[in-house]
From TrEMBL:
Domain of life, source organism: Bacteria
Keyword S-adenosyl-L-methionine: no
Protein name per the record: TetR/AcrR family transcriptional regulator
MF terms in GO: DNA-binding transcription factor activity; transcription cis-regulatory region binding
Keywords, alphabetical: DNA-binding, Transcription, Transcription regulation
Keyword S-adenosyl-L-methionine attributed: no
Organism: Microbispora cellulosiformans
DNA-binding region (UniProt annotation): 35-54
Domain HTH tetR-type span(s) in chain numbering: 12-72
Length: 240
């Protein structure tokens, strides 16, 4: 009599073992060490097993990135909340940069080969967490640009800082670069006081847009239409 549950558990164990071995190879030898043949040999298995479990090499790389991100996200979620959404964003930046410097090969795997329309499940989760922090700032009335622009700006600035620091000899790395870039990025998207106290519809639209998902009195269609209007208001008047 077959045991589907046991087969699934066994498959999961093999998959986890291969990912762990691949992550160790990545740390010791960089991305070039992650050939299918090398991973299979180190894991004590055959290449067809890797293809069966991961589909192709890109699937294996995604799994390794997700494995690395899991520890990153665990640390990120375990941090005590600062209470102030802007301070929480600042803490998230510091953790992001610290993770990249401590795990250069893994960070390069996750961010060093961007492809339009393709994002690993783990990095998508991380970006969603960043989006949630941006939304908290917007809901507090302290975001002065649209949520997507704010998230993209903070993400690109933070990732760029990591790669810039990684390109330097360790003895030349000056963390004041990260601090200055962090403060500049946050200043570019936030205000010290709630933006809704400033006259004009744009700031009010940003704050209302952040809480729109909670407007359960509206239908999905109504929220969608209102969201488009608020996005237009938040963008400000068109420039000639």
């Amino acid at each position: 009599m077959s045991d589907p549950g046991g087969e699934t558990a066994g498959r999961d164990r093999v998959r986890a073992h291969i990912v762990s071995v691949a992550a160790a190879l990545l740390t010791s030898g960089g991305r070039d060490a992650l050939s299918t043949r090398a991973v299979a040999a180190a894991a004590g298995t055959q290449a067809p097993t890797i293809y069966r479990l991961f589909g192709d090499k890109e699937g294996l790389l995604d799994a390794v990135a997700e494995f690395g991100f899991t520890s990153y996200l665990r640390d990120k979620k375990a941090r005590p909340l600062a209470g102030d959404p802007v301070e929480e964003l600042r803490a998230g930046w510091d953790l992001h940069v610290g993770f990249g410097l401590a795990n250069p090969a893994l960070f390069s795997l996750m961010y060093g080969d961007p492809q339009p329309g393709r994002q690993s499940p783990a990095s998508a989760v991380a970006f969603r967490i960043l989006g949630e922090r941006i939304r908290d700032i917007a809901a507090a009335g302290r975001l002065k640009v649209g949520e997507r622009l704010a998230a993209d700006l903070v993400h690109s600035a933070g990732t760029g800082v990591v790669f810039t620091l990684l390109a330097m000899p360790e003895e030349r790395r000056d963390m004041r670069l990260s601090e200055a870039a962090r403060d500049a990025a946050i200043a570019a998207v936030t205000t010290d006081a709630p933006a809704v106290e400033t006259p004009g519809p744009a700031a009010a639209a940003v704050a209302l847009r952040a809480t729109l998902p909670d407007a359960t009195a509206l239908t999905d269609g109504e929220r969608h239409v209102l969201g488009e209007w608020l996005d237009r208001l938040a963008a400000g008047p068109p420039t000639n």
